[in-house]
């Protein structure tokens, strides 16, 4: 098997000072990519900063191993921070080919106890942060021979105890991913997402919403290094899917797909008909396979 070559790729990675983001940065750099390591050094709930310079530490490790990287301590929740990440790529490496939006915050609380300000903070980082970085990077991704975006969502968007603010913001990012995939298709910019699982400090911070058994399994079995290969492949020119989401954890990779069931068709529809035929509306069966909803047909090559 031939190792994919990333030597002509420049990738911006947000939240790359620790955990999954650091694993992305170190793998891509080891495979030849030039990497902008973005990390503000924020606390896990986004309320402040901690650590001296996590982005700088990652860059030191990468350069010591012979890789190319530059640190950028920028806040993705601001337009200036997003622009700074892109400017760092252009000034240091002269181009930008891909973005991995990994920066995130998390805090658990019951829906009826979460202040509205907390919803906004999660949106500012997860949704608007990714949007700002993509917006700043977009002209350069369009110029790249193979522009790529990978957003980091979460299965919490499908429902999780005490995480309506976190899961809701990740659901918004899923919607952005799908729409950018449509917009970028004609120009060859592929936009996908991963829903990772790993025993990181963010997982520890959300432990209240997980059983002790699940949390212990994550600490031991689910490593950030298991996630990075999927993100790396998605930013390589050889990968030509778009608008897709992949669950990634502990060496397991699968596709998360939206589906339409066959359902029913009744022009004289009444509430009684809906009630009587509700099982048909819901059914996914081998005799009535659902249609996978995709953004558009993807070209064979970029």
Automatic annotation (TrEMBL):
One Pfam family it belongs to: adh_short
UniProt keyword annotation of Oxidoreductase present: yes
SUPFAM superfamilies: NAD(P)-binding Rossmann-fold domains
This protein's record includes keyword Ubl conjugation: no
Keyword terms: Oxidoreductase
Protein family membership: Belongs to the short-chain dehydrogenases/reductases (SDR) family.
Full protein name: SDR family oxidoreductase
């Amino acid at each position: 098997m031939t190792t994919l070559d990333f030597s002509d790729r420049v990738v911006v990675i947000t939240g790359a000072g620790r955990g999954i983001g650091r694993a992305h940065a170190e793998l891509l750099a080891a495979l030849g990519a030039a990497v902008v390591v973005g990390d503000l050094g924020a606390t896990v709930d986004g309320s402040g900063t901690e650590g001296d310079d996590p982005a700088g530490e990652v860059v030191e490790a990468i350069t010591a191993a012979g890789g190319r990287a530059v640190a950028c301590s920028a806040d993705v929740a601001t337009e200036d921070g997003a622009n700074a990440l892109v400017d760092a790529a252009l000034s240091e490496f002269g181009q930008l080919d891909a973005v991995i939006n990994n920066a995130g915050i998390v805090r658990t609380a019951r829906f009826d106890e979460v202040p509205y300000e907390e919803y906004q903070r999660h949106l500012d980082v997860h949704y608007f942060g990714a949007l700002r970085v993509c917006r700043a990077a977009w002209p350069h991704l369009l110029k790249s021979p193979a522009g790529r975006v990978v957003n980091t969502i979460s299965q919490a968007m499908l429902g999780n105890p005490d995480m309506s603010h976190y899961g809701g913001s990740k659901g918004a990012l899923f919607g952005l991913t799908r729409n950018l995939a449509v917009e970028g298709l004609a120009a060859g910019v592929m936009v996908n997402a991963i829903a990772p699982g790993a025993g990181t400090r963010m997982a520890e911070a959300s432990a209240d919403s997980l059983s002790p058994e699940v949390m212990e399994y994550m600490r031991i079995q689910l490593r950030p290094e298991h996630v990075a290969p999927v993100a790396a492949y998605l930013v390589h020119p050889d990968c030509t899917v778009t608008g897709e989401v992949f669950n990634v954890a502990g060496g397991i990779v699968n596709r998360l797909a939206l589906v339409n069931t066959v359902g029913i068709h009744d022009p004289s529809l009444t509430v009684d008909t809906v009630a009587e035929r509700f099982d048909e509306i819901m059914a996914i069966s081998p005799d009535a396979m659902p249609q996978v909803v995709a953004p558009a047909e993807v070209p064979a090559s970029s």
